């Protein structure tokens, strides 16, 4: 564990929360830091929509996004179990769990993952989602890393309520709805930018995020400006 | 897995359309919402940042009046819901704070007979074609389930409203929506949104039309929207402004 990086991460997350705040950007930062700091090979965040169905809100890479989707579609896997039980699920070696999650275990191996840890995102009595850490190599999870990962998951949960809102209601499922819509908006913008500059979706996301950071703007505001062609956005992806 | 909220709502709306003996239209979303929620009426307006907004339908005189008022005055919950892209819930219009917020609308709405108003934006990312308004003649709160239902009605209204334009943009015309058209409703896949963004460039159109064209193509080909979207994202399928979409079988 790199303590300096840990401190830097919490400062960075706190900064994001205080400034004009974009949930999708924040969750992606969270997954990236889980990879950089906690020794995870990949990380993903799932949030429940208003029907209680999980949606992939952020993933550190495409492999893990597909694997998270796979769990949702097949209705099996550690992340779903963690979400439903509201408690952590830790699997140091996925090979031992082929009976428990036959389809997921096989799929995870295909994607090159050997171990997984799923941590609940709880808000008082309500479980709103899960943070998932994947590792390529099987083996026990670092006992120091786990509470830190849980703390990151808790910060992410609190952040849901932090979202800037101009409306009267602060109902949680409305917040989630806004977050989901912001995700759609950013994906639309990624598609437009990727096609325009002949780059892939990940490069498009990075370009949008760098632009937002460099200009001190919310990711979803930049995404909307791009889609609506309301601004030149000079220097974006060039 | 239990029946999802969106499929339940879809059935309620389809029943209203069947009762009317027509294909599913936005008016069916309104009547179904009134039947399912503790409200007296519903209205739906097409809204736009660049073009004039106009009322599309309403279930009674009061809701018709509310739509007209908001669009004419340029203020009210529906206008705020559209501008900010969030639901605006007003359980009691007599609250003093609201009188400051919408000085003309609040009084006019009370006079028209509405005491509670709920405005739900129709939203799909940057696509925001309108607002669904619900009103009640008595003060009322929507509980969590009711609010979730109301948002599901608004989601369905978004697609019904956009699909109504398919015949105008070269997709399959005719009575009502193509078969299986609501199948992909509850499904969210990043690829659908990415493909929509890609089409804005390939077709040189706005995001709303790009989404309509993507859906129209999927219907016309009898393919799932997620399948068509994945092909667009993988660059196996290209759209162009003056020709039919072209398919290349190998990955680039």
From TrEMBL, chain A:
<dbReference type="Pfam" id="PF13185">
    <property type="entry name" value="GAF_2"/>
</dbReference>
<feature type="domain" description="ANTAR">
    <location>
        <begin position="166"/>
        <end position="227"/>
    </location>
</feature>
<dbReference type="Pfam" id="PF03861">
    <property type="entry name" value="ANTAR"/>
</dbReference>
<keyword id="KW-0805">Transcription regulation</keyword>
<dbReference type="InterPro" id="IPR005561">
    <property type="entry name" value="ANTAR"/>
</dbReference>
<dbReference type="InterPro" id="IPR012074">
    <property type="entry name" value="GAF_ANTAR"/>
</dbReference>
<dbReference type="InterPro" id="IPR011006">
    <property type="entry name" value="CheY-like_superfamily"/>
</dbReference>
<dbReference type="InterPro" id="IPR029016">
    <property type="entry name" value="GAF-like_dom_sf"/>
</dbReference>
<dbReference type="InterPro" id="IPR003018">
    <property type="entry name" value="GAF"/>
</dbReference>
<keyword id="KW-0418">Kinase</keyword>
<keyword id="KW-0804">Transcription</keyword>
<protein>
    <submittedName>
        <fullName>Transcriptional regulator</fullName>
    </submittedName>
</protein>
<keyword id="KW-0808">Transferase</keyword>
<dbReference type="InterPro" id="IPR036388">
    <property type="entry name" value="WH-like_DNA-bd_sf"/>
</dbReference>
Automatic annotation (TrEMBL), chain B:
<keyword id="KW-0805">Transcription regulation</keyword>
<dbReference type="Pfam" id="PF03861">
    <property type="entry name" value="ANTAR"/>
</dbReference>
<keyword id="KW-0804">Transcription</keyword>
<protein>
    <submittedName>
        <fullName>GAF domain-containing protein</fullName>
    </submittedName>
</protein>
<dbReference type="InterPro" id="IPR012074">
    <property type="entry name" value="GAF_ANTAR"/>
</dbReference>
<dbReference type="InterPro" id="IPR036388">
    <property type="entry name" value="WH-like_DNA-bd_sf"/>
</dbReference>
<dbReference type="InterPro" id="IPR029016">
    <property type="entry name" value="GAF-like_dom_sf"/>
</dbReference>
<feature type="domain" description="ANTAR">
    <location>
        <begin position="172"/>
        <end position="233"/>
    </location>
</feature>
<dbReference type="InterPro" id="IPR005561">
    <property type="entry name" value="ANTAR"/>
</dbReference>
């Amino acid at each position: 564990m790199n303590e300096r990086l840990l401190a830097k991460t919490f400062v960075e997350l706190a900064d994001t929360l205080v400034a004009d705040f974009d949930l999708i950007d924040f969750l992606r930062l969270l997954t990236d830091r889980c990879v950089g700091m906690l020794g995870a090979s990949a990380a993903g965040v799932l949030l429940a929509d208003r029907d209680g169905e999980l949606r992939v809100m952020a993933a550190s890479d495409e492999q893990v996004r597909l694997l998270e989707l796979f769990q949702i579609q097949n209705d099996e896997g550690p992340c779903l179990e963690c979400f439903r039980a509201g408690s952590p699920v830790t699997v140091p070696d996925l090979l031992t769990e082929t009976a428990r999650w036959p389809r997921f275990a096989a799929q995870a191996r295909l994607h090159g993952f050997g171990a997984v840890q799923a941590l609940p995102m709880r808000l008082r009595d309500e479980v709103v989602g899960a943070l998932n850490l994947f590792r390529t190599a099987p083996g026990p999870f670092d006992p120091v890393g786990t509470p830190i990962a849980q703390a990151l998951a808790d910060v992410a949960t609190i952040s849901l309520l932090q979202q800037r809102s101009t409306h009267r209601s602060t109902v949680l499922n409305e917040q989630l709805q806004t977050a989901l819509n912001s995700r759609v908006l950013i994906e639309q913008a990624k598609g437009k930018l990727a096609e325009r500059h002949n780059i892939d979706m990940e490069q498009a996301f990075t370009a949008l995020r760098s632009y937002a950071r460099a200009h001190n703007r919310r990711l979803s505001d930049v995404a909307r400006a791009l889609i609506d062609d309301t601004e030149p956005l000079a220097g974006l992806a060039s | 897995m239990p029946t999802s909220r969106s499929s339940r709502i879809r059935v309620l709306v389809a029943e209203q359309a069947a009762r009317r003996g027509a294909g599913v239209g936005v008016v069916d979303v309104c009547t179904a919402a009134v039947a399912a929620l503790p409200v007296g009426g519903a209205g739906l307006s097409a809204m736009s940042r660049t073009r004039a907004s106009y009322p599309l339908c309403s279930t009674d005189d009061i809701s018709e009046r509310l739509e007209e008022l908001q669009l004419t005055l340029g203020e009210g919950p529906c206008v705020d819901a559209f501008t900010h892209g969030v639901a605006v819930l007003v359980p009691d219009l007599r609250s003093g704070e609201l009188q400051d917020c919408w000085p003309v609308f609040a009084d006019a709405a009370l006079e028209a007979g509405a005491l509670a108003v709920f405005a739900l934006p129709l939203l799909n990312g940057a696509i925001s074609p309108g607002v669904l308004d619900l009103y009640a003649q008595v003060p009322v709160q929507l509980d969590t389930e009711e609010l979730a239902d109301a948002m599901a009605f608004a989601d369905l209204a978004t697609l019904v409203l956009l699909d109504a334009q398919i015949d105008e943009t070269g997709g399959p015309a005719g009575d009502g929506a193509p078969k299986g058209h609501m199948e992909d409703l509850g499904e969210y896949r990043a690829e659908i949104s990415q493909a929509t963004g890609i089409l804005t460039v390939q077709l040189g159109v706005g995001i709303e039309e790009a989404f309509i064209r993507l859906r129209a193509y999927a219907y016309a080909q009898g393919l799932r929207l997620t399948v068509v979207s994945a092909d667009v994202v993988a660059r196996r399928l290209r759209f162009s402004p003056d020709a039919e979409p072209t398919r290349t079988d190998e990955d680039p």
